[in-house]
DNA sequence: TTTTAAATCAGAATAAAATTCTTCAAATAT
DNA sequence: ATATTTGAAGAATTTTATTCTGATTTAAAA
């Protein structure tokens, strides 16, 4: 198993928050020169510690500032229904996250829409056409307090 | 209000999924030369459509592969208690997201830990020392189906 | 329809960053 | 104590980002 030291961890934490630093800047932060920092990052990428680099967009600017957590119960609990559900929700762009969960419901989805009107449309027209869904329960986000990916 | 056209939107969607493309590569994808693509991206950054660039890490590799959604009720609903709660949870690293929500509970938190043992420790020692919390309810993630940020 | 002005683009030129390579020093094993 | 391995620094090179100039298109005005 590949090892990871204190400096690697510091680089990961820095890049997790801002991946636009140059290797020169990063080198200064961890008191090394550019080449070992470059090699460390490549190693962290190749060993899977860093999965990818992405741009974070502003949901408000893109008309997606209204967040709802939507709990889902399936009609039945067989494999076909489950697979069909997964296949269907993958195609719906308003659903930005989905988890198979313990408890009263089967799935928890994070839904990102423009406003309540858009959410209503989403529930009627998008979820409404997913046959496998038995029932839903919506929890509305009033404000975002903390988000390490936001 | 600044405008945004079809090409801008395509660039945003591409960068949201992978911010490591060179402007040359992006230019090819949207059928333009490098300079206008470069200028478009700078404009999107300056106008706030792109908030920041980050590296996505592998939770499993970093001992954070066990995800729990934790619902919270406050003891009382006054401003001081609320502010104290927010201030406390900001410092707890296992809490990666937190939302003020509608419904039976006041807050919904996404918690990222190594395993059930770690979660138990988190509930006892971390949440246990947050005075403002009245009650909690945990929903465990069995598998992640979809995550545009993962 | 013609003219003017404002945007937007392509392509070259430049600056900055990433990446590679060589050498050296420290740590570890023999 | 010596050989071997590992990791680092700094220079050299390659690639990319960034700037600049001139041409073309678009939209508005005449």
From TrEMBL, chains A, B:
Keywords: DNA-binding, Transcription, Transcription regulation. One of its GO terms (cellular component) is cytosol. This is AsnC family transcriptional regulator. One of its GO terms (biological process) is response to amino acid. SUPFAM superfamilies: Dimeric alpha+beta barrel, Winged helix' DNA-binding domain. It comes from the Bacteria. PROSITE patterns: HTH_ASNC_1, HTH_ASNC_2.
């Amino acid at each position: 198993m590949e090892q990871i030291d204190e400096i690697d961890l510091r680089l990961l934490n820095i890049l997790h928050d801002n991946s636009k630093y140059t290797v020169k800047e990063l080198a200064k932060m961890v008191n090394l020169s550019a080449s070992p920092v470059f090699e460390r990052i490549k190693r962290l990428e190749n060993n899977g510690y860093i999965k990818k680099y992405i741009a974070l967009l502003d949901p408000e600017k893109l008309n997606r500032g209204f967040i709802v957590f939507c709990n889902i119960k399936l009609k039945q609990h067989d494999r076909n229904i489950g697979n069909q559900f997964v296949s269907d929700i993958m195609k719906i762009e308003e659903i930005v996250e989905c988890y198979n969960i313990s408890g009263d419901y089967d799935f928890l989805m994070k839904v990102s829409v423009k406003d309540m009107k858009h959410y209503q449309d989403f529930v009627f027209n998008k979820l409404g056409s997913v046959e496998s869904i038995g029932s839903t329960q919506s929890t509305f986000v009033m404000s975002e307090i903390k988000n390490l990916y936001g």
